[in-house]
Amino acid sequence: MATVIPDSTPEQDSGQRIARRSLHDEVVERLRDLIVEGELEPGKRVPERVLCERFGISRTPLREALKVLASEGLVELLPNRGAVVAPLTVVELDEIIEVMVALEGLAGLLAASRMSDAGIVEVKALHYEMLACHARADLHSYFKLNQAIHLAIIEGAGNATLVQTYGALNGRIRRFRYMANLSGARWDHAVAEHEEILAALTRRDSALLSRLLSDHLRNKYQHLKQAYEAEAQAAE
Amino acid sequence: MATVIPDSTPEQDSGQRIARRSLHDEVVERLRDLIVEGELEPGKRVPERVLCERFGISRTPLREALKVLASEGLVELLPNRGAVVAPLTVVELDEIIEVMVALEGLAGLLAASRMSDAGIVEVKALHYEMLACHARADLHSYFKLNQAIHLAIIEGAGNATLVQTYGALNGRIRRFRYMANLSGARWDHAVAEHEEILAALTRRDSALLSRLLSDHLRNKYQHLKQAYEAEAQAAE
DNA sequence: GCATTGAATTTTGCATTCAAAATGCTAGCA
DNA sequence: TGCTAGCATTTTGAATGCAAAATTCAATGC
Questions:
Q1: Helix (H, G, I), strand (E, B) or coil at B10
Q2: Mean pLDDT over residues B216-231, rounded?
Q3: Beta-bridge partner residues of B85
Q4: E strands of A40-81, at which residues?
Q5: What is the residue-wise DSSP string for A78-89?
Q6: What is the distance of C-alpha A59 from the center of its chain?
Q7: Which chain B residues have a beta carbon less than 8 Å from that of A76?
Q8: Residue A168: partners with Cβ closer than 8 Å, 6 or more residues away
Q9: Which of A59, A185, A186, B71 lies 20 to 30 Å from B154 when distance is taken between CA atoms?
């Protein structure tokens, strides 16, 4: 995450050209999106020239952005041979999840005691919105609300470093979320887990919330991993 | 951490000029050292021009390095006003330790079951070397061995992402270690904790090792924090 | 004497340029 | 036909150049 103190330029996303705030920071975000959304494929070279033209910028800010993304682990820099989108092996995926499970646990522990009542109410609202999406089988909105709930809980831990650390890891695996295609049973189960999570948060049961969040991520990952391995196999 | 695949250039640190591997990556390391060692003071501006001359490089690689360090949280980029060494507030220190405690706990959990016998033997050797330093009251060497032990355990968890994540956070607080001046009683206590840690690791007691490592870091931090707050107060 | 304004200087952000490395292509040879 | 050497092209890494923003500082007015 680029620690740039943003100036107060408003978020006018109307133009496709880059103009607002520091250029390189904008480019970092754009590139990250391209990678997360899969437009830049893992293992493939990041075409400097093409992207420069596409963004209407010179190579300097683009290269700065690549360095930042490399430090986040999203791309790999090969000396004198440019940048490639970091491919994520199953081993790395396992590693990242292992760490994230611990961080979710920490978030639960802290959020249960530190989150404001208003925060809990907000999570509750998001939860019910998410249930609505489940009922409508609106997977895309469900994912977004799901992410929003987890983010709200992590932010509720009142630890900006935790938010940042979790976010960096989440960024590396987020692109796989695009593949996860919840089957009916698994989806129902996930929703049931969320019910428990909400209940534990409402009761401010630290130990339970911690455990539930960790388990939930582990379970989610089981599914994600199966989908990934299936895809990886299919890709051969 | 800059994810650069290093080429096989040997680590010849003889000359003060930068020549080996990708320049920007070298600069990142050098700048990090300057910050960690306190030569660049927190809150102060990072003088681009001066550092360029000092390193004998142009502004481009230096600026790239600053972007990377910003993403690590070591510096803050102020748009149009350059970079400053990120000052670490007590609140941020608290946050970082909170996350690191969780990561140490995870490391203990994993290392107890995954570490090789050879790895445990190595930790044991480091441990006794450290005891020797304690006996000789050689604080500097003690610190180095202490760090080596913790690193060995964290690496013993067999999770590169954990190593990297922990390392990034550790980098942000390492400069404070330079202040920590272990009092006799506290030092003895720390050594006693290390004895317990080694015993738990030898017995491969996951739960215990996890708890001990977390507690140990928390305790260490108590001391560190007091020293920091005393210093901060004295600085006024 | 102090605050304010505005010009000179410095610093920053990005584009451009240049040299070195890597890549691709062609031709020559077995 | 297949392989390799050598050249041309492209791409990368870093230096330099240039315009805009910020800072400094002195002169002016109060």
A1: coil
A2: 82
A3: B75
A4: 75-78
A5: ETTTEEEEPP--
A6: 27
A7: 3-5
A8: A1, A72, A73, B165
A9: B71
**C-alpha distance from B10 to closest chain A C-alpha (Å):** 15
Beta-carbon contacts below 8 Å between A and B: 125
Chain B's closest residue to A88, CA to CA, is B161
C-beta of residue A103 within 8 angstroms of C-beta of residue A216: no
* Site from B161, B169, B170, B173 to mutate, A interface, most A CB atoms within 10 angstroms: B161
- List of chain B residues whose C-beta atoms are within 8 Å of the C-beta of residue A165: 99, 165, 168-169
ipTM: 0.85
Structure tokens at B123: 């930790």
Length of chain A in residues, anyone? 236
Cβ atoms within 10 Å, residue B41: 12
**Cα separations in angstroms, B36 against B33, B172, B173:** 5, 8, 8
| Distance of alpha carbon B145 from alpha carbon A222, whole angstroms | 39
Nearest CA in chain A to B165: A165
CA Rg, chain B, in Å?
Answer: 19
The SS3 call for residue A159 is: coil
The encoded tokens of residue B153 equal 């355990």
Mean pLDDT within B204-210: 98
pLDDT tier, B174 (very low <50, low <70, confident <90, very high otherwise): confident
Footprint of strand C on the protein (CB under 7 A): A 22-24, 56-61, 79-81; B 45, 47-49, 59-60, 63, 77-83
List of domains in chain B? 23-85 (1.10.10.10), 90-234 (1.20.120.530)
Q: Do B3 and A86 touch (CB under 8 A)?
A: yes
Q: Which pLDDT does position A179 carry in this prediction?
A: 64
Give the pairing of strands B82-85 and B75-78.
antiparallel
Strand partners, A84: A45, A76
Please list every residue in chain A whose beta carbon sits closer than 8 Å to the beta carbon of residue B106: 98-99, 102
Confidence band for B228, pLDDT divided at 50, 70 and 90: low
Structure tokens at A103: 């961080």
